[in-house]
Specification:
about 5% strand, about 170 residues, mainly alpha, about 75% helix, two-stranded parallel ribbon, single chain
């Protein structure tokens, strides 16, 4: 019984203290769409990704040709020839997987290029969000683009346009 009373008391205190704080929300997707530098960076990243995908697809196509050739000639090959051909196909597949990791892996070229191009924009957005929070004394600002499960949002608490306005005044 004491545990239930303590839990209810803590919930009540949390709700009361939460009501004393100002909470707002933003949508970073909308904000980023208003920044030409971000749009250019995204286009550059998309072009680079397409280039890397094409290179990978070319290699996969070559492996497919080699595999199909192997399948059609398999019955006329000796066991050592089959083993050699299978090892060649397997090694080429490993090379392609390694290239995919180099291009698209967690620490790959795309991740590094994304960090290089997007990080300055993200820092500006973060600074604008912090400015809005400080200016209007918000304790919490939630990003709807990054948060799933929001079931209700009051348009009066939407700070997206304020952040966009600050960014537009700081664009060179």
């Amino acid at each position: 019984m004491k545990r239930i009373l303590i839990a209810l008391s803590l919930c009540f205190i949390s709700v009361v203290s939460l009501n004393a704080q100002k909470i707002g929300y933003i949508n970073t997707e909308l904000i980023l769409n208003e920044i030409p530098e971000y749009q250019a960076a995204q286009q550059q990243l998309n072009d680079l990704a397409d280039k890397y995908k094409a290179a990978i697809e070319t290699e996969v196509g070559r492996i497919d040709v080699l595999y199909n050739s192997y399948q059609s000639q398999k019955s006329s090959m000796s066991s050592s020839q089959r083993a050699t051909m299978e090892n060649e196909i397997i090694s080429k597949e490993k090379v392609v997987k390694e290239k995919q990791k180099i291009y698209f892996g967690e620490d790959g070229l795309m991740a590094k290029k994304s960090e290089e191009l997007i990080s300055p924009v993200q820092k500006r957005v973060d600074a604008a969000i912090a400015a809005v929070a400080a200016q209007d004394d918000y304790s919490i600002i939630i990003d709807l683009a990054a948060t799933s499960g929001v079931v209700y949002k009051n348009p009066k608490c939407d700070l997206t346009q304020q952040v966009i306005n600050i960014l537009k005044t700081t664009i060179k």
